[in-house]
Amino acid sequence: MLVLRSNRDAADIATAMFDHGIDPLDRLEQASRALNDLEKRFVDTPTALTHSGALQSDDGAALLTGLTDIVGSVRGAIGSLPDGDLTHQLDTLLYSINRLRTADGDVTHRFVKRELADIVRDVEGAINVIRRDLIAMRDLSLRERQAIDRAVLAGGASGLVIGLLLLAYLSRSISRPIRNAASALRMVGGGAMAGKGALPGDMMVDLEAAIRFVETVIENKDRSSRLQKNSSAAHLLATVERQQKRLRVALDALRKPLCLVDDKGRLTDANQEFLRLFPGLRAGTAVASWSEHPGLAAALLAGTEDEVLELEDGSSCRIRCHSNPIDNGIIAVFDELAGEESAQRELERLTLQDSLTGLPNRDAFYNALQKALHTGADPISVFVIDVVAFKNINTTLGLIAGDDLLRQVGERLRTLAGPDSITARLAGDEFGLILPGAGEAMGPERFGRGIVQDFARRPIAVAGRPLTIRLAVGVVPDIAPGGGMDARTVMRDCEIALETAKKRSTDPFCVYAPEIQKEHQRRQDMERDLREALTRSEFELHFQPFVDSKRRRVSGFEALVRWNSPTRGRVSPGVFIPIMEETGLIVSLGQFVLRDACRQAARWPEGLSLSINLSPRQFDSGNIVADVRDILAETKLDPKRLQLEVTESLFLSDADKVLDILNALRRMGITISMDDFGTGYSSLGYLSRFPFDKIKIDQSFVRDLTRRENMAIVRAVLGLGASMKLSVIAEGVETVEQMRVLESEGCEEMQGYLFSPPRPASDLAKILVEVREGFQDGRFGPSTPLDAPSAALRA
Questions:
Q1: Of 344, 376, 403, which residue sits at a domain end?
Q2: Could you count the other beta carbons within 10 Å of the beta carbon of residue 407?
């Protein structure tokens, strides 16, 4: 019974392998080949598309026909398969085939490609399931064969005798099913018909051979399936490579630069125009790491829809970013600006750029400062920097050297400030810096002093010679955005700090503070009152006499201006004259003094001279020669009675120009006198270049003649005047002792409070009488000079 049951099981397994394995597998492989043909036709060669992207009608009919055949093969395979996972999978396959087969309307290449790929995947899945089942059936068949072998051996051992009696009967009853099974296996594998060439005693061998034959068929099917799968993968890879090549050709054929950036901020692709426009970039790099193209990186990361980008060569282009749904990134396209738009952009750039240094100009600086104050995130510090005595460099080395100096100063300031700062040339020799977060990295005061020290330590080569540049720096530190400050207020405070720094000779640096603002406000009020005083004629002239000690009389008067303010009272010249010098108001005041003094001196007795001080600003502004000539003609004053006093500081700006003006005035018959002689460092040099008519010994030497050094200077000046035939006058004489010493050294003309302080014009007659009487009554010493000064003064 065991042998019979095993015999039947083996036959059932062979039949199942045929019905549920080999036949469905053949049908599905037939469907797979048909699908591959459809894929090659409608996916790899999409020429069947219309202009709208849909399949043409003839190709659509061919696609439906092919799908009909595939459906028939799949249904035949399903009909011979049992229920289970495979049935569900094939149902899904039929659904995918029917969805593509019954699609109405426009069937696009993309839809066909996606659906056919899904069908191929499902068919391959079904083949794999059937292959798995066949292998399982093969294993089961082997186990049944082994059971039959064991049953035969057991039956032979236990009932050899009975077996011999029943051998004929068993032979007939067993051999037929076994041979039927072997014949069925051969039919499944495509072999010869059952019973051909087989001996009756070889039925087990025949069954084993049939099973091995089926195994060989299954292995061949599996190998064929694997080869087909690998062939399909290679085919798909080749298709992808062809499409990538087509995309590359299409991108490089575009004349507009184009690049693709994914959602992680990486450059995934770009055409040749883009790489030419931005050399050094390559696919796969992070956009945020493009330090050589910061403007491009910022625009791509922001995904701006429309922005003008400044390129390194000075040109501009417009960048437009579009969304890329494939990788959630962007596609950036670059357009050259049209001629008019490019010219407009260039004009805007030039209007915001300093033509000499290439730095932003004052307008651009104000715009950047205003933006930082209103929309910035971090505190900022604002610096205003001035090149001290820059005018002297222009004068001594020329304008070209001065321009070169400004360019080098601007470049060094930009380097010291760093890439995150804004460096601008505001005007002339004045520069501005906006330093973000200066209070966090290093204090604004430390940074400002560092700038001053850097220029002091490292000279700048200009016109072939090294120049040590002295800077003055004013700063408004740590301004918080949104604090109510505007650009105008910040720049006003910076200028106040800068003006304060300029006045500091040893430490030309100033941090703005409210106290400085108050002092500046007082100064501004003074300046305003001085301007109003000029318009309201609040200034008046006082006169101090020059005394001829040899002739014992007044030889002339020096005109000195005084201000009697209706609100401030009498203001010292030492207070308002420096302000008028700095603001340039001294030019208008000087014209008033020159005109009014000449008008009054024209009515004086003959022999009285008029001395007037000239400011260096009068030589820089206007035409002093024409002004003097016109005023002399207007007032009818003899030019020989006019003395003009100048100081050595006059020659620091443009010595050649000053000497030309002085020569022109001297040719008019005017006497030229050097005031405060001996206090400068090159007075003797200027005396050799210009033949002055008179020199004035500064009162600082006269005030203390007991000092040996002062006495030596006085004697030297008097000796120099005698040798060069120059008149010498000593100012600041306040005591009879000083007068006697000066007389003994040969000084014949003096000025000082000993004779009279400056007094109004109405007192000039009294001054003449008082000086004459002073000599007569001995108030200024004996009527004749002493033979020698006292021992103390001669020491």
A1: 344
A2: 18
Q: Are 359 and 337 in the same domain?
A: no
For residue 594, what are the CA distances in angstroms to 590, 609, 621, 773? Answer: 6, 14, 15, 30
333 with 323: CB under 8 angstroms? Answer: no
Residue listed under structure tokens 């298709």? 239
CB 100 within 8 A of CB 65: no
| Residue 725 token pair | 């035939």
CA distances from 742 to 424, 500, 554, 777, 793 (A): 57, 41, 17, 20, 10
Look at residue 505 and give its three-state secondary structure. Answer: coil
Nearest to 41 by CA among 14, 16, 61, 15: 61
CA distance 254 to 258: 8
Query: Given 3-state DSSP classes, what are the helix, strand and coil percentages for the chain, each rounded to the nearest 5?
Result: 60, 15, 25
456 and 554 share a domain?
Answer: no
Could you please report the per-residue DSSP string of 142-160? Answer: HHHHHHHHHHHHHHHHH-H
What is residue 40's DSSP assignment? Answer: I
Cα–Cα–Cα angle for 518, 524, 527, rounded to 5 degrees: 150
Same domain, 672 and 700: yes
Helix (H, G, I), strand (E, B) or coil at 718: helix
pTM confidence score: 0.51
pLDDT in tens, 655-687: 778 888 999 999 999 999 988 776 655 456 667
Residue 405 contacts residue 393 (beta carbons within 8 Å): yes
Per the CB < 8 A criterion, the answer to whether 182 and 207 are in contact is yes
418 and 323 share a domain? no
pLDDT digits (tens, 9 = 90+) for 109-163: 666 667 767 777 776 776 777 667 767 766 776 676 667 667 657 665 665 656 5
d(CA 507, CA 399): 28
Residue 687 — φ and ψ, nearest 5°? -65, -35
Given its phi and psi angles, is residue 587 left (phi above 0), alpha (psi -120 to 50 degrees) or beta?
alpha
What's the domain range around 59?
2-207
